[in-house]
Amino acid sequence: MEEGMLRGGGVLAVLLLLAVAERRWPLTATGPARPRWTTHLGLLLAGLLLLRGLALLVPAGVALGAAGWAAEQDWGLLQGLPLWIGIPASLLLLDLLIYAQHRLLHGHPLLWRLHRVHHRDPALELSSAWRFHPIELLVSSLLKALTVLVLGLPLLGVLLFETLLAAAALFTHANLRLAPRWEQGLRPWLVTPALHRRHHARDAAEVPCNYGTLLSLWDRLFGTLQAPPLQAQPAPVGLSGEEAAPALRLRDCLLDPWRRPP
Predict the structure, then answer these.
(1) How far apart are CA 23 and CA 25, in angstroms?
(2) Which residues pair with 26 in a beta bridge?
(3) Environment class of residue 110 by beta-carbon count within 10 Å: exposed (0-12), middle (13-18) or buried (19+)?
(4) What's the pLDDT tens digit per position in 143-184?
């Protein structure tokens, strides 16, 4: 309970800060906010309910539960490492996992059907960070839990990563124009809204790029980084071709993986 409150409080603070920043320094016009937020909050709630059900059935089935169980059982390859090693290792290894998972979601046809719900968003703003199909959230949570169990990552490191991951998702999807000096200073280290917007660009399917969520390190290391010019005009986002039709209503998003493109 305490871990959840700490994580929730940190993410809420980031959400409020970014909401103010979006209004002060918007990148593009995104249209009416209420329908988008209703749909995206509905997806988030459905995903959380599914994960809560998983946690009741399999207590070690989510990342924090898996970390607590691994510590109690002294389980995992890295179990027993001092926190000054275990926490940085947790951040790096879990962020690498999310990068690899993201590439798999784009590369596997069945997984792409789940992930395209996220990419059918015709605009990017804060609530886009919650636009994920509940089954995709379930798959991601199981992969994280399995990784935490195998490696025996410390609970504090997993909690910190989960908090940073949620905050980074809000930041990278924000409809926010950073000053060039901030953009240039952050890009070597972190994924910025401009970098992630390039991943969502309609023509990005031709040259897949920018899979990172927290650190830009992995895209640089594996050759998938595409950095748009610092003051470039924002590219249109969404899908093109047969998959171009956006899914705007909650029902459409939930059913989208089982629908073939027209």
Answers:
(1) 6
(2) 176
(3) exposed
(4) 999 999 999 999 999 999 999 999 999 999 999 999 999 999
